[in-house]
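Ops channel
N.P.: pipeline sanity check, posting one input/output pair.
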């Protein structure tokens, strides 16, 4: 039987130029840049037998890496699929033209067209600059798709119709939202936003549910669940490679403290076999609102949406 495939979360840097309200980035004690040897060794570990999609993201801003252009060129020569998540602040014309065709999808996080809301959510970023860069990306990307990740905070939902209208006016077609407001490290406990409500919003505005992008196939999703001792579908569908080269237990380990191994020591298949035997980690899982998700009824809904998409 062929092994299942996972998505890889590839962190080029754990440093960030923003302090977004929904991200407890400050929990990272030693933010760092991914060094060249770690980057190229990581690329050597990523293969299409084990990985269906690699998302350059993590808990930092990839476009801020000093070797951004070099690293982007390298993934352009790799046979696997690479996507990138960015806050858009540093996306100038030169960077946009350089990534075109090297990424399959450029996903830009955007909270609201209302500058007051944006300033509260995407702290430290320039609203007008990011808007300009969205327009530039839409204009110059011809071989890489531009997508917008809409922030599922209550204050952003209030201005969602105006935000969607502005994005569509400028030609952006792929609008996505997570059906979960992630409670990473308990940082979002005071925000009440139910998954049921978010799914209704996603349906109402004809958005793409982001969870679908982490399901390579229904068969793979079932294998992920069957093979792992700890039945957490979100964790088991994604493998986090930190800027240090460490494989983390879970992508919600914001502090980067729970290390399974390192890319210099284990292949992706070896570390997946190791992770399959691990159980629940209270330090991470106790405050995570993804725990005990995707049981029978919700999994059926995701499968249905996958088939329809």
């Amino acid at each position: 039987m062929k092994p299942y495939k996972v998505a890889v979360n590839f962190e080029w840097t754990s440093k960030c130029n923003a302090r977004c309200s929904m991200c407890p980035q400050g929990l990272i004690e030693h933010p760092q840049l991914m060094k060249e040897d770690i980057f190229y060794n990581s690329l050597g570990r990523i293969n299409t037998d084990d990985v269906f999609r690699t998302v350059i993201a993590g808990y930092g801003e990839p476009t801020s890496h000093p070797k951004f252009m070099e690293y982007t060129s390298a993934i352009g020569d790799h046979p696997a699929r690479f996507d990138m998540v960015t806050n858009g602040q540093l996306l100038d014309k030169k960077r946009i033209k350089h990534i075109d065709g090297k990424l399959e999808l450029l996903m830009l996080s955007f909270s609201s067209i209302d500058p007051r809301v944006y300033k509260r959510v995407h702290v430290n970023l320039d609203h007008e600059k990011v808007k300009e860069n969205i327009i530039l990306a839409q204009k110059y990307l011809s071989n890489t798709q531009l997508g917008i990740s809409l922030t599922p905070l209550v204050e952003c939902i209030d201005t969602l119709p105006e935000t969607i209208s502005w994005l569509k006016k400028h030609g952006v077609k792929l609008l996505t939202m997570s059906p979960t407001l992630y409670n990473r490290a308990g940082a979002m406990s005071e925000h009440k936003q139910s998954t049921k409500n978010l799914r209704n919003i996603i349906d109402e505005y004809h958005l793409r549910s982001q969870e679908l992008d982490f399901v390579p196939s229904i068969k793979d999703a079932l294998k992920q669940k069957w093979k792992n001792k700890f039945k957490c579908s979100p964790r088991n569908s994604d493998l986090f490679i930190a800027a240090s080269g460490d494989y983390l237990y879970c992508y919600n380990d914001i502090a980067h403290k729970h290390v399974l191994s390192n890319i210099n020591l284990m292949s992706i298949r070896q570390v997946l076999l190791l992770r399959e035997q691990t159980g629940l980690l209270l330090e991470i899982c106790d405050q995570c609102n993804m725990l005990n998700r995707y049981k029978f009824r919700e999994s059926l809904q995701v499968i249905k949406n996958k088939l329809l998409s």
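N.P.: looks fine end to end. Residues 6-308 form a domain with the TIM Barrel fold (CATH 3.20.20.70).
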